[in-house]
Amino acid sequence: MSYYLPYVFLSFVYLQLPHGLPPTSVDLETEVEKRFLRDPAWLPIHDTDARDVHVDSLLHCSSSPLHSGISVVRDPTTGMLLDFTEVLLGDTGISAKNSMSLQRPPNPNPSESLRGSNTNYPFLPVTYIFPFTSGLLTVPPGLKVGMDFSDKGLWTPARRISHSKIMGINMELVSPLLLSTGCWNIAVETCFHSATRALVRSGTDVGRLGLARTTKPGEGHEVKKRWAIPVDITSPCDDFYKRIPNPAFKYPFELDMFQKQAVLRLEAHESVFVAAHTSAGKTVVAEYAIALSQKHMTRTIYTSPIKALSNQKFRDFKTTFGDVGLLTGDVQLSPEASCLIMTTEILRSMLYNGSEVIRDLEWVIFDEVHYINDAERGVVWEEVLIMLPDHVSIILLSATVPNAVEFSEWIGRIKKKHIYVISTAKRPVPLEHYLYTGNSTKTQKEMFLLLDPTGNFQTKGYYSAIDAKKERTSKHAQSFGTKNASQKTTPNQDRAVWLSLLHFLSQRQQTPVVAFTFSRTRCDDNARSLASMDLTSSVEKSEIHSFFQKSLSRLRGGDRQLPQILLMRDLLKRGIAVHHSGILPILKEVIEMLFSRGLVKVLFATETFAMGVNMPARTVVFDSIRKHDGTGFRNLLPGEYIQMAGRAGRRGLDATGTVIILCKSGVHDMGDLHVMMLGKPTVLQSQFRLTYTMILNLLRVEALRVTDMMRRSFSESHRDTQAHEQQIGQLKQTLSSLPPLDTEGQLSDLLPYYYTVTELRITAEALQCAVLGSVNGLKALSVGRVVVVNNKQHFNALGVLLQVCVCVCVCVCLSVPTYKLKLQDVSAITVKTLKVIPDRIIDNYNKRQQPRFRLDPPGQAISTATQELLRLAEANPGGVVTLDAVNDLQLKSVDVVEGTMRLRLLQDSLKDFNCIHSPTFSEQFLRVQERMSVQEELDKLLFLISDQSLSLLPEYHQRIKVLQSLQYVDSSGAVQLKGRVACQISSHELLLTELLFENALSPLAPEESAALLSCLVFQQKTQVEPHITNTLQEGIERVLAVAQRIGELQSDCGITQTAEEFVGQFKFGLTEVVYCWARGMPFAEIAQLTDVQEGTVVRCIQRLDEVLKEVRQAARIVGDSVLGSKMEKASLAIRRDIVFTASLYTH
């Protein structure tokens, strides 16, 4: 019984306690062992069931890469296999993480093969092969002695031998010093003058010493290598089909001459620049390149400036070739295709990130190259052109530009390959330009021809238009020209003009019409005002309705009832449409497709419709010739007008295209119209600028330098480094051949004397410029004033002024009786004046210029003036006293006073030199001057090819300072973690990276994060104040605080952008819209929250999705998986419904 007693007692206690027994302490060691060592769920990486020990595995190591391989030896004539030989392999152990070579093995990660990775090295651009030896350390850090890398003549690389070197032609020395003496004191000049005379007496060639005018760089006989080769498209190409018996692509029509020439160059694997008018057939060149790459089993990349154009080209090329892919910010279709279509920004990213696509790339086609003039995005084209590897050929398609050869020369020089420039000004459909003056009974069916198809300006038509317009004005308003042209018209007047014009064009079967209107609001208003106009038949209405319904069937029911869609459906049924950035993307595509079918009769569009979209019309109408360019109103530039007017005329359908300019309130000025229609198109200009992303991407690869990128930009295309290096070699050779200087004994201070005289000359020149630029100085240049003249004809000659114009003086000099001078030829103004009769002297001089009086002696007035000057010179052998800038001319500025004092000090110091007493002073001084002139020219050329002469170098140092302050790079320029994160971000990289590292996005919900980041993509002004949560408001304040800090740091480092300007670029007008959209609100409701147009909202949300992807990738680099998943949720929340509906062109 006693054995069972404890158990009975415990059972009794357990039954009595309401909650059972109290907790007892368990063995902690047992609990830990059970939970953390025996439970596989806690340690899933360990196989606790069977843990076999393999000691041999500790001795195993991976095999090293092979250093040799087997090569086949064949008979060169028969090709028969003869032997095998072992060859050493280079570049072993390289990868995308340590090498820029194309020989590196392909990236094994499939997700990185397409777009690359920001940890990859880019492939080596051809432009970076040559400057490898620059910047090499000769002495290791911490050591006193190092290695000398200079050429000792033991080995010389193979170089192209220029014709001038074969012929033995040497460039002459530059920079004459003795004649460009400017305003020297006459006593000082005597030293040089006497030295020159001594050399002339001794028979020395003064010109050889640089004392006369010498050949400037570029004036020599050496033929400069040209990279851009203009192609003559007027010469016949009769043997085209013999030269290309089996073309890669056959066209169902005969090619134009410029197209044939381009195809011939493509077959030879040459790069081309094709400049032609809109609709001339430039796409034929792109199509042939794509066909060639498919034939060669290589790849082609087609880049466009805008996403909409990429989508359209995808549809066109997909229909033609089939194997075509598309890469945009939010779409990736068939990335393995042989032809990839993308925006230029994506190609830039692929180049920086070492994409594997670049290996197989044969062609890159740049469409709409004139977009390089875009201030914001033009830099992308330059970066891509510089970063492309050597094996890639380039095709550039552009509208007609005046400097196509210059642009191609730059590309050819940086890529070391010829660029064939094929340009044609011929239009496939000639244009007729008219003025339309109003809606009166007389003129509503009359247009006035202003420019005929041959390009002749018709002044008769212009004056007829003025007369017709005057009949409509009151007597008070009758005036010639443009006084009324700038007055605004009322909506009713606009409506009347459009109704009368469109009725007139419809009756003449001159539809479809594109009406270019440079205001989105006015586009909408003009379309709405035509409520009474119906331009379509019942069959066309049915076709429009069917296509419209089918296209929008992919939208949700609520999205189909959006006000913009309902309005556009009503307009389209009547043959009217609107096309601008405020229209929903899917609606724009519907309108473009209906327009290409000829079902849209009148399209009110902004300038963007003319960008690359091949949709010609019968007629183009300009609502106005003035536009707002972001800073103010101005007339259309010739290039803009030509681009838009070129939409008129359909090839194969119209004999001529019609362009009409509306004159609503008055006829435009004839000069403005002439410049706009016949002026030169805008030249291609560099928009190269430094960005933090570019700097960081280049700094992370040791072999690439930012200064090399700057040097090869189009903005620095004037630098001919190769020619400069040739001249440097010649100057060094000349310098080494000069006799040594004698600086012993009395001549020991010869070099200091030379430097003092040189400083004296420079100081005097600067002082004389200040004198001649002042009012008192010009007053002193009165008739009869004696001056000292120095130029090519005169050396310290005295002259007397006869007449003073704005920048020309007429004077009598001792050597030439009467002579016209420029102001800069006057090196000093003396205190002396002479009495002269200027009119008599000038008349006598002009008379003796005639052939029959040329041998007559000078007149009495000239002889008297010359004798007076001669007497004055003899009376003052040390030089005539000159006017003092401070005391006599009363110039009191700091620069003038300091310059005068310095001049006197230098003049006094010349007496203390011993070298001037040496008997060989003249000869030795000329030797010094000869050597120094060569040295100065050499130094100038060395500066021109150095980094110090780069225009953007100061800004580069400022931006490096900013990056170092924010710890993106260290003091040696190595990219740190923050810098690697910033490389992942395409725009506003500093702000986003700082927000990321300050955990500013961590406390926000996914929808709040998306709303906050909308400030990076929204750039418009809005009048509606958003209603947002407190958390979001705090986030906005934090973003502004970070932006303010970055802006102030940039200002402190010297960057010109102020902190206010930096902060002002972030606009939060769409925060409420994006927040509600991410929370699931229908699009129709969020459209009511803002005054921003629907199309702009959609575009901003689409760009926001790209930003969220970049932040997600950056968060993963940092290791913040929580933020990464939050960004992914935010991206999923906004990717829905009408905003991310697939393009009609891609499905």
Q: How would you state the average pLDDT, rounded? A: 81
Which range does the strand content fall in? 5-15%
Determine Rg (CA atoms, Å): 39 Å
Q: In the CATH classification, which architecture of one domain applies?
A: 3-Layer(aba) Sandwich
Class of secondary structure makeup: alpha/beta
> Number of DSSP helices?
39
CATH C-level category of one domain: Alpha Beta
The third-level CATH topology of one domain is Rossmann fold
**Uncertain residue ranges:** 1-15, 129-134, 152-222, 474-486
CATH superfamily of one domain: P-loop containing nucleotide triphosphate hydrolases
Question: What form results from the Cα inertia axes?
Answer: globular
Helix content: 25-40%
Span between termini: 89 Å
- In order across it, which strands form the biggest sheet? 3-11-4-10-9-5-8-6-7
> How many β-strand runs?
25
Main sheet makeup? 9 strands, mixed
Question: In summary, what is this structure?
Answer:
This protein is of the alpha/beta class and 1147 residues long. Helices cover 40% and strands 11% of the residues. Strands 3-11-4-10-9-5-8-6-7 form a nine-stranded mixed beta sheet. It has a seven-stranded mixed beta sheet with strand order 13-12-20-17-14-16-15, sandwiched between helices. Strands 24-23-22-21-25 form a five-stranded antiparallel beta sheet.
